[in-house]
Amino acid sequence: MKRFFLLIAVSLLILNYSQAQKTDTLSITLESVKYPYAVKFFPIHTEGQDIKMAYMDVAPTGTANGKTAILFHGKNFGGYYWGNVIKALTAIGYRVIVPDQVGFGKSSKPFIHYSFHQLATWNKKLLDTLGVQKTIVLGHSMGGMLATRFALMFPEKTEKLLLENPIGLEDYKTFVPYVNTAQQYQTELKTTAESVRKYYQGSYFTYWKPEYEYLVNIAGGVTFSADYPRWAQVAALTFTMIYEQPVVYEFQNIKVPTVLFIGKEDKTIVGKGLLTPDQQAIHGQYRLLGKQTAAKIPGAKIIEFEACGHIPHIEIPTEFLVALTGSL
């Protein structure tokens, strides 16, 4: 009899786990993730594949000023985390366009050669299709590397370059040990919600709050998907893109007005887990990197935030939005 009840108990545990797993599972194109505004899709043909790039195109809610801003997300995110920034910019008259870059968010996850040049070109084509002649470009984290490349390639299209804790302020390949894409893929396959939370807590925020959990729920939720190996492969490909395609040597070539927004407690390093604690301590120091980068960009301004990490628009939203709108 005891054995019978034990089997029932074990069965219930397995059932509950399966139900919880099913509840937490997200598709790798985030169909069930609610974005702050309606999502549209831009068709692209590349390397023999028909793919699509998701984007939000949000009209001004305040008196239209005839200007547009485009927002580039970071590597571990999609357009879903820009809601408060979109609301603030549309309230003061801006049209705001928010793409999920190919390989991220609700966009396709193709196996292709990923490059910042190609991503920048697709974003320009999206803007051209939408009739946007010139735009303010705001890039966060990896989006900062992309925004920099966009401004370098299309200065005539870039009214102003805004960089929120961009990565790529160092050349990672000069101090992070090389791993090839196949090796990085094996690392990506080990991702869990708990490993995501631990990384975000240790690298992105100065103090963890329950309202940040939705970021973990999305990044961790896709790991339950049967298609997660595709997500992991694309994540490995874009890791290689970041590692092999630095922008740090070209900051002096930027020709557009530039503002850096820097959370001074940020210690983000791409490939941080490959470094010793001593190595980690001397890299990714944004309180130094921000100033060094601003000095390289002709005429650049820098706005620094105390007690703030990698994502100012989430960690200190009011302070960040005041600084952002003031810089416009």
| Spatial ordering of strands, largest sheet | 1-2-4-3-5-6-7-8
Fraction of residues in β-strands:
15-25%
Structure class:
alpha/beta
- What would CATH call the homologous superfamily of one domain? Alpha/Beta hydrolase fold, catalytic domain
Name the overall outline. Answer: globular
Write the CATH fold name of one domain. Answer: Rossmann fold
Straight-line N-to-C gap: 73 Å
Order of helices and strands: HEEEHEHEHEHHHHEHHEHH
Would you report the number of β strands?
Answer: 8
Outline of this structure?
It is built from 12 helices and 8 strands.
Protein described:
- The chain has 328 residues and is of the alpha/beta class.
- Helix 4 links the parallel strand 5 and strand 6.
- The protein is globular.
- It starts with a helix and ends with a helix.
- It has helices at 2-24, 83-91, 116-129, 142-153, 181-189, 193-204, 213-221, 228-244, 277-282, 286-296, 312-315, 317-327, and strands at 40-46, 49-58, 68-72, 95-99, 135-140, 158-164, 258-263, 301-305.
- It has an eight-stranded mixed sheet, sandwiched between helices.
- Residues 1-22 form the signal peptide.
